[in-house]
Structure formats: structure tokens, C-alpha cells
Amino acid sequence: MTGAAQDAGFSITPPRPGRLPLRGRDELVETILRAAEPPAGTLRPAEEAAQILWGLGGCGKSATALEVARRLEARGRLVWWISAKDSARVSAGMREIAGQLQAPESQLDLAWAGKTRSPVELVWTLLNESDRPWLLIFDNADEPSLLAPLDGRVAEGTGWFRQPRTRNGLVLVTTRDGRQETWGDWSTMHPVRELSPPDAAQVLIDLAGDAPGNLAQATSLATRLKGHPLALRGAGTYLAEANRIPVGGPGVSIRTYDGYREALDRRSGAGTTRTVSQAFDRAVRPVVQSWEMSLDLLAGRGLAQARPMLRLLASLGDAPIPYQILLDPARLSASRLVGEIGEDRLREVLRSLADFALVDLGVIESLPAQSPVAHVVTLHPLVRELVHDHPDVIADRPAYHELVLTLLDVLRLRDPDRPREEEFDPDEPDKWASWHVLAPPTTGAVLAFFDAGELPRTEPELLTTALDLARLIARFLLAVSLPGQAEILLDRCLAACRRIGLDPRERAVLSLRHERSRAALEQGQLDWAEAELREIIPAREALLGREHRNTLASRHKLARTILEQGRWADAEQELRDIVRAEFRVRGPEDRDTMTARHSLARAVAAQGRYADARAELTEILEIRLRHWAPDHLETLTVRHTLALCLLHEGRAAEALADLRAILATDTARREDQHLGMIAARHTLAEALVATGDRVEAEKVLAKVVTDRRRILGDDHPDTVRAEADLRQLQGG
Predict the structure, then answer these.
(1) What are the start and end residues of every segment in region (Disordered) (predicted)?
(2) What are phi and psi for residue 524, nearest 5 degrees?
(3) Is 315 within 8 Å of 452 (Cβ atoms)?
């Protein structure tokens, strides 16, 4: 296994097949097998080398792909299974494939560091040249863009997903996206639909056995459930449990196929979903009713909290939910929705929901096992959507919003003066892995609260919590170089503030406006950022004082906008005043003091006073090395500025050596797409030109241009400068 796969902590080996047979997909499986291994004497059409299984959630796409994988693996074919839920898993999985195809680790390191041919081209060259037949599966590719080329579409066929150019290879994708235009006309599309009544009945019998009734009765129930595999699984699991542990008399517990169907018929008039379309409503209504009956069974066994817990989970964002940190038993017990629930009971409720196929419990293996966010509970998207829109949940929405925000309150920083001691400080790189897990459900919950009618206006304490959580998420997005996403989030939150009628000079609103200015600054919208900060600063001064940490933060960002506009002397003057204030307020070795001094050194260097800048940077570096790791991201950015000074002083060889050392650190490799590390790569290209290596410089600079276009856009000043440097290098 390559180092990348080990770091990611997951396998690209297909999951072990379930103990039950796959029903109703024989023809589909055989069709794909024929595409992988055409009959003797026949040629496979080009479009059959890329196969797409698409359909509603829970319809059996992954199970079908797993059966194909099992059969081809038994025939000696290499089989790889990659979860396409996030870009990190796709990238690490494809790197592992390259390793298995005998690519040297050094070659992989260079490709993934952007120092040679692209990783995509490297892997696909190896695949197309492989002598051994192979099958590559991208599972759950519900966000096709993750498989697309940079700044392109999947249908272009130049990203991770493409058409094999060898008869030895087959690519299989499972997805909800069934549009031919998404996957290209060079792919073969296969809808995975509901099961026929005979096959669906067999699924029920596989799960529940003969105890609930005969084949005809199972067929009748299967027809009532519309043959939806998820509904069949819920019903079959319910009946198996009801007969395995027969609690209550015949009139109390439903134990037969007929009894289950009759109960569904009795409930059908109640209306348990908000209709999206008639076809969708017909398909999913029995699914919801099945889940409700499973929840009734759990309640009958003393787990009444299962229903409110499922509804609570559905009220969080559509993402894995780290339950160890967010589902605090004490806070849950204080809510009327859940009632008294200790750790043991909470564990039992979650396990029971998983046993009844209502949730999945898992571990994010890329995180340390002791991480408080490693253990997650995930709702099937269809489950979450329908439970979230259940009439009872809609009627009690304010109470669920209150409970969700009460639980999320644990993420707020308690002591801003000691950020390194905070468990979830979004500015610290060692907390980013946690925030990658926390941000999606938190964002969903915060935005849902802001959209909840009058609730934000009538619950000021909850509003304060929501605003603070939005600020933390934005800080995380900005810290990991996602300013565009931060802008979208902040604009929605600030629009909600205006809708509610909050004063734009109110403290919490000023905090969001400050982060929005940062997002504009990072995206090169300098005039807008400067104008906004010139309104924020006097408002913060009036509210908090000129030397309050928040006021100083806004003053620093204003100085940076001035610096980025080339008004270096003005920026230097303002930054010297800020640094003096930071010394008084927080001391010479505080994190924010270091950041302000770094900006000051940049302003000095921009005016050509490189020796003075190096002296300042050397002091900063000495302090940072006393308190932070040598490869802390901020430390690396200080070292980058030092190397930049050396380069401009004519000491190109020294600068080049320092830059190579910076970019060889684990942090720089891990944070390859951070704006600070992209800037270091740009300086590396300049140092390479200065030392005569124009070939490598062109490769490095081309990658810088690509990365900046993707993150910052074509018009950002840094993108424009990199493009100009590349044209000049190419003689254009």
C-alpha cells in the first residue's frame, strides 16, 4: 500500500459481499460482464468500456456493482473499488492503483506534488498499458465534478473518469445522476429500477424467512412496497426482529407479511411526506411508513428515543455527523424532544437505528481513532430527506432547531486569548481535519435556522450561537484557502441578518462583515474590501475600543488590502502602529502579533529594504520555532518570505534551496492547495529561472496557474501575474 493510501486510512479493495443473494439484477450483471469480457470473435463497442449504474438512493446500485466485482475478481481480474464521495479519497485511491501497477514511489511523490506529469495522466497511462485485465469502480459518484478534469466536465473524458483505451479495462460508476450529458456519449447508461414483485418477494423472504407467511403473501407486501430495495430491507428486517423476539400478543405486534401490508394501508391516508411529485410520492411513501413502523417496534422495546433521535439527526446538514462530540447526553436529556438519555442508552439507540437500516455507523479512518469527530452517524439521503419533511417534524421545527444549536454550541471558542488551547480553533492547521467533518452538518444546521421564519428574530440567544458558528465555519474556509465558499456562506448569513433587522454595527454582525472582507481580500476584490473595512473599523472602535483584539484584526486586514494594492509606505505606517498595539495588548510572542509583524516585513520588503525585512523575519522565525512546530503552516509562510528576500537580493541559489526544503515538508505536501504554498511554488519557479532551470520552472509555473485559476479565478491579480510570468517564460 502506498504512503498516500496509508495516510488516508482506507482500502480500495471491494467490500465483502453481504450474506444475502442479490435479487433481480441478473440480466444487468450479465450485461456488464459481457462488456468486460466480450464473447470470442466479437469486438466491444468503445462506449461499453465505461458503464454507469444510476438510480434513486437505496435502489441497489452498489450491490450490483459489488456482484460484478465479485465475479470478475474470481476470474483473476484486478478489481479496485474507490469511494467517490470526496476528492481526497479519489486522489488517494488512484495513487494506490498506480502503486499496484508498479509505479515507483518517487514517481508518485513527484506527480502528486505537481513536479512532473499530472497524477491523472500518470495513472491512466499505467491503466491503459496494463497487461492484466482490470475493473475500476467509482462508487457513490453523486458529485460527478469530483471525477472531472480541472475547470472541466466529466463528459470531456480527461479527468479521473474516462474511457479506457485498452480492451483489458472496464470502468463502472454508481451514481444518482442519470444524465447522459453528465457522463458523455462515450458511456453506457443503465438505470437501476425497483425490483419486480417476484424478485422483491424473494428479498423479503431472504430477510424475514417463512415465519411471516408464504410466497404469495410476501409478493403482496412486496408489491405494496413498490419493489424499492430500501423499503424491502426495512420491512424484512422489521419482521425478522418481530418474530425473533416476539414481544406482546398477536394484536399488539405485527409479525406477518399480511399484517405489515394491512398496517401500511391503514396509515396511507395520514400523508407522511410533503409531495415533490406524484411519481416520487408514490415511490417513497411506503418507505416512510416502513421506517415509522420500525420506530414503533423500537419504542415498544423501550427505545422511545429512537424516533426523536432520527428526527434530530435529519435536522443536521446532509453529511456524516460526528456523534461523539455533538450528541452530548446531558444536553439531549435537557430537551423535551428526547428526554433522559445516558451514554449507554444513547449508544443503544444509535446501534438499534443502524440495525434497522435507518442510519449507518462508521469511522473516518483518515482520522486518529481517538479523535472526537472520527466516529460518525450517516443517514441515507432518502431517509434524511423524508424524515426531515415529516409533518410531525415540521410542526416541531423550532424545538429541533433549538436542540441542534444547543448541541453545536460545544464548538464555540470559550477563550479567544488562548486559541491554541481551544479544541476546535479553526485557525490552527491541526484542527482542520476535524473541521472538514464538522463544517458540513454545522453549515446545514445554521442556514436552516436562518431560514426558519420568525424563529431567529424571537430567540436572541440561539441567534447569537448561530452567528458565532457561521463565523467559525467562515474562518475555517478562509484558513484552508476556500474564500469563494466562505463568501457564499457569509452572504447568505448577512442577508438573513438584514432580513431579521439586525443593526449592521451590532457586534456579531460586525464579526461576519469582517470575515466577508477577508474573503474579498483573498479573492483580489481589494477596493470592495477596503471600503467595507473602513466602515467596520470605526464601528468596532466605538463598540470595543481602538486596541481591542477585534478592532486590531480589522485594522490589520485593512493594512493588507493597502499592501496588496501596492501602497507599501502607507501599509508600513499602519502596520507599525498595529504591531506596537499588539505588543501592548497581547505581547510580543502572541500568534496575532506574529501575523502582524509578518505583514510588516512584507511591506518593508516590497519597498526594496530586504535586509531590514530579513532581520524582522528572522526574529519572527525564532519566536515561532520556540512555540510552534518547524513545519507549522504559518512558520513555512515566514520561511517563504525570507526566501523571497534572498531571491531579490541576488542570492538565488540559497533561495532555491530554502524553497525546496519548505515544499518538501509533510505540511506543504498535505496543504499543496493552500494559497500560501501555491505562492511558495510561484517563488520556486522564479528561483529556478534565476538559476537557469527554465524547463522545471515552466512545469511548476503551469501548475501554479492551474491552481490559482481554480481557487481564485482568472481575474485575480495573483492569477494574472502567474499567467504573465508563464507567457514570458514560454517566449510568448
Answers:
(1) 1-21
(2) 80, 10
(3) no
Q: Per-residue pLDDT tens for 333-354? A: 999 999 999 999 999 999 888 8
Angle of helix 257-267 versus helix 215-224 axis, rounded to 10:
20
Q: What is the DSSP string of 56-111?
A: STTSSHHHHHHHHHHHHHHTT-EEEEEE-SSHHHHHHHHHHHHHHTT--HHHHHHH
- What are the strands of the beta sheet with 359-363, ordered from one edge? 321-322, 375-379, 359-363
Cross-strand partners of 170: 135
CA distance 716 to 713: 6
Task: Please compute Rg for the chain using Cα positions.
Answer: 29
| Whole-number Å distance between alpha carbons of 389 and 652 | 62
Question: CA-CA distance, 169 to 158, in Å (whole number)?
Answer: 16
730 vs 732: CA distance, rounded Å: 6
Q: What is the pLDDT of residues 463-483, one digit of tens each?
A: 999 999 999 999 999 999 999
Q: How many other C-beta atoms can be found within 10 angstroms of the C-beta atom of residue 151?
A: 9
Q: Which of 626, 553, 555, 560 is nearest to 588 (CA)?
A: 626
Give residue 171's pLDDT band: very low, low, confident or very high (50, 70, 90).
very high
CB within 8 Å of 87: residues ≥ 6 apart: 146
279 contact partners, CB below 8 Å, separation of at least 6: none
